[in-house]
Description:
Elements: E1 4-9, H1 14-28, E2 35-40, H2 43-50, H3 52-63, E3 67-71, H4 72-78, H5 80-85, E4 89-91, H6 94-102, E5 107-109
Parallel strand pairs: 1-2, 1-5, 2-3, 3-4
Helix pairs in contact: 1-3, 2-3
Amino acid sequence: xxxHLHILWTNADPVVFDKMVLMYAVNSLVGxxxxxxxxxxxxxxxxxxxxxxxxxxxxxxxEQGVKFSACITCAKELGWSTLRDMGLEVISWGxxxxxxxxxxxxxxxx
Length: 110
């Protein structure tokens, strides 16, 4: 399937990350959608930068094909260099998120 699912990850609870965001992102690639991008927004940028277990799981998910991208404003305030060093894209997400909403693209907010 050629669909691209975006997951807007705003809840920095590590259990929510593990049991919903990560699990759904990885499993969606198995026959459900063609591409998955997890967007880190707010406190999730700090969690990803500061928690070694979360960092490790993100890297493993990236190896399986999940893309991770962080909001540049949040990343600058909450862990910019670590996220970049992990290989995450760091961009201004305001306009692309607005475009996703306008076009009714598949977007899951957690």
